[in-house]
Design the sequence.
């Protein structure tokens, strides 16, 4: 909503003689604004912090995360992001990047995963989580999404994620599909990707984590999904809960072959 | 109506057993597993209770159809529309039209009923999020059709006239409960689910039908 106001202000700046012309001008202004955003991405700062955190000895066990297995073997970061969420044999669970980081922070560093999951976004260890996710995503920048559907549980999570995507509820009857189920639509002036199919390189699932200029915050996928559910008037999805991971599998598998641009920059 | 989605891969059974969802026949009931996951994943926060996900038959049927990628059978959608039509509360004293200026304010607002709102946050109508309405507002969404000239295009020159009655009632009904006219519409049921009050619905009807409203210029 905040951006709607901002864009309306930009639009007001170009009062034209006809409504049609005003609209064209506004859209052009918005495109210019978006182009300006590409000049520098504050996500770089979170990325640097994330890399330090990965290597830093922390927690009761005074250990780094350098032995963390993100799916491609202990310590392998490059290429891991574009294959997540996936099934992990040690936890016997499908995990996304953030739920996997929780596992590593607990097993390697002795940090309390339950406590971190309960911490609100933007506070304490959640800030470290965001920085780590930003750096790990950056290590796969430009690579194509290639989630596995080989394990039975991965297939199950895709099917569950699909049902969650179309789940209508709350006082407004909204589902994810209310906004993201058709091509070429927008909310106010914000373009909406159709996430029921592959939306293409750097769109939707392939654009997070991202730095949001409108609120000056860095968001990873868990926070992105959380805020979608907030606006949907749904109750609060637990951090790294199975629902959020399953939704990630649905979106990630649909984005198969699309290039990741994360960490991205958003209005 | 309810489609059972069964995946019979034997591998799947082992995985699903962990989630406590394998059945005797060696299949996984994905719908049931999804329901369990929803129950375990969502919690109350602020004014939003987890129970808002215990939805009605309308939403359940439409979600199932969406997952299947097939529209509802004609007979099912008719039944859903009939059930929703019965919920419409018609205005006291036949006062269908309120103040279009108030309607415009409501149409602009997308606030209310999220977990960052409070019980006293006034609910908006969310209209501009999806529809073009007053031509002067260029920040409008496109999920729903344009409503510019809504009344004019439908020939409503005097909303109080008998000739306009059917369109006035339809407009009221559509705002009150959109599913009465289109079973799986994306549009919220503003009156039925308590997003807007009776007086607020009248203001929005005025925004759309009052010949003096900017919508009809």
Sequence:
């Amino acid at each position: 909503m905040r951006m709607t106001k901002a864009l309306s202000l930009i639009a007001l700046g170009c009062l034209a003689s006809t409504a049609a012309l005003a609209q064209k001008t506004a859209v052009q202004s918005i495109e210019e604004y978006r182009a300006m955003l590409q000049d520098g991405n504050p996500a770089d700062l979170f990325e640097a912090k994330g890399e330090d955190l990965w290597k830093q000895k922390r927690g009761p066990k005074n250990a780094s995360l350098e032995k963390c297995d993100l799916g491609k073997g202990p310590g392998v970061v490059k290429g891991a992001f574009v294959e997540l969420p996936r099934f992990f044999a040690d936890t016997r669970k499908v995990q996304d990047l953030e739920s996997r980081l929780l596992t590593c922070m607990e097993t390697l560093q002795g940090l309390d995963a339950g406590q971190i999951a309960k911490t609100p976004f933007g506070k304490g260890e959640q800030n470290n989580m965001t920085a780590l996710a930003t750096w790990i995503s950056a290590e796969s920048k430009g690579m194509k999404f290639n989630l596995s559907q080989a394990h039975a549980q991965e297939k199950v999570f895709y099917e569950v994620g699909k049902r969650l995507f179309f789940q209508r509820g709350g006082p407004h009857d909204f589902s994810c599909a209310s906004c993201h189920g058709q091509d070429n639509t927008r909310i106010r002036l914000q373009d909406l990707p159709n996430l029921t199919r592959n939306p293409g390189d750097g769109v939707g699932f392939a654009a997070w984590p991202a730095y949001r200029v409108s609120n000056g915050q860095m968001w990873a996928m868990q926070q992105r999904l959380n805020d979608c559910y907030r606006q949907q008037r749904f109750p609060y999805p637990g951090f790294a809960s199975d629902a959020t991971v399953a939704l990630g599998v649905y979106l990630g598998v649909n984005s198969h072959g699309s290039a990741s641009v994360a960490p991205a920059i958003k209005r | 109506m309810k489609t059972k989605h069964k995946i019979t891969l034997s591998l799947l059974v082992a995985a699903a057993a962990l989630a406590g969802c394998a059945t005797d026949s060696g299949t996984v009931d994905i719908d049931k597993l999804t329901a369990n996951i929803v129950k375990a994943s969502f919690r109350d926060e602020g004014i939003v209770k987890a129970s808002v996900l215990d939805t009605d038959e309308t939403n359940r049927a439409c979600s199932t159809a969406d997952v299947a990628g097939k529209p509802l059978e004609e007979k099912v959608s008719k039944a859903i529309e009939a059930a929703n039509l019965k919920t419409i509360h018609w205005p006291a004293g036949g006062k269908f039209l309120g103040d279009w200026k108030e309607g415009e304010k409501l149409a602009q607002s997308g606030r209310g009923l999220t977990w960052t709102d409070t019980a006293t946050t006034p609910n908006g109508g969310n209209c501009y999020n999806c529809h073009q309405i007053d031509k002067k507002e260029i920040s409008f969404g496109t999920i729903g059709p344009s409503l510019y000239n809504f009344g004019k295009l439908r020939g409503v020159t005097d909303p109080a006239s008998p000739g306009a009655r059917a369109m006035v009632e339809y407009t009221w009904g559509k705002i009150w409960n959109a599913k009465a006219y289109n079973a799986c519409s994306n549009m919220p049921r503003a009156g039925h689910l308590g997003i807007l009050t009776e007086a607020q619905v009248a203001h929005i009807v005025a925004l759309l039908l009052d010949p003096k409203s900017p919508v009809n210029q």
